[in-house]
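Thought: the user wants the 3D structure for the chain below. I'll pass the sequence to the structure tool as-is, report back what it returns, then summarize two notable features.
Action: structure_tool
Action Input:
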Amino acid sequence: MDHPLRILVVDDEIDLVHMLRTHLEAEGYQVITASNGITALSLLAQDRFDLLIVDVKMPDMSGLDIVQAARQVDGHVAIIMMTAYATVETVIEALRLGADDFLVKPFRVNFALLPMVERCLARRGLDYARPSATGVA
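Observation:
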């Protein structure tokens, strides 16, 4: 693949967004961030992303609304929902609306998020753009 895969991270917790961006960019992904739903929807309307990582609970709109809108714009985008307030109902609704996976905060990036990102992209038929140890992609 000639270019890194693009990930949109949507969360109102600025420290978490910064941490996710740092880890994902270190893995070779191009990361765009949004701190609210309105900005996320605007970015989705303007550009294409390979993966969305979206918080369920934000001040201006639900992450579930973002998932629904993202699926209308691009049915192939991979989506990971995350929340500190997980309920069975929320997980079921997220999956019903088209999320590929669900992550409960707090989580460990290396052991939870990064493998989940790779699995979701693989299920969507995308190769994640991470250089191999030998330097051959």
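Final Answer: Structure generated. The first strand starts at residue 6 and ends at 10. Residues 26 and 35 are 21 Å apart (CA to CA).
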